[in-house]
Amino acid sequence: MTTSAPSSENLKRALQPMPADIGRLLKERHLERAYEMRPAYQRNDYLGWIARAKRADTRQKRIDQMLDELARGDAYMKMEYNGPRE
Predict the structure, then answer these.
(1) Any residues with CB less than 8 A from the CB of 9 and at least 6 apart, and which?
(2) Domain count, the chain
């Protein structure tokens, strides 16, 4: 499976591209499927939130939070998530 950026279907915000490092981390941690199972708006929100970080340490903290939430499968941006999972 190739991890891609969210599709533009029904998104109200600008479509965010998938950064190579994040795609690599999703693959390395076997979280590609968990990422793809999330709705397009959540995938887009995660990428936009990460892209807006001004400092490298803030960006890394946000990436770590996204990966942790995908691994656990029970949260989205620190909110409860009960949607589809692997």
Answers:
(1) 40
(2) 1
Q: For residue range 52-66, what is the model confidence (pLDDT) as tens digits?
A: 999 999 999 999 999
- How far, rounded to the nearest angstrom, does the alpha carbon of residue 10 sit from its chain's CA centroid? 17
CB 35 within 8 A of CB 75: no
Domain range holding 42?
Answer: 20-80
Q: C-alpha 73: how far from its chain's center? A: 12
Is 36 among the domain residues? yes
The 3-state DSSP class for residue 76 equals strand
| Each residue's pLDDT tens digit, 6-49 | 665 666 778 899 999 999 999 999 999 999 999 999 999 999 99
Contact 82, 39 (CB under 8 A): no
Within 8 A by CB and 6+ apart from 57, the residues are: none
Sign of the Cα torsion 30, 56, 7, 76 reads positive
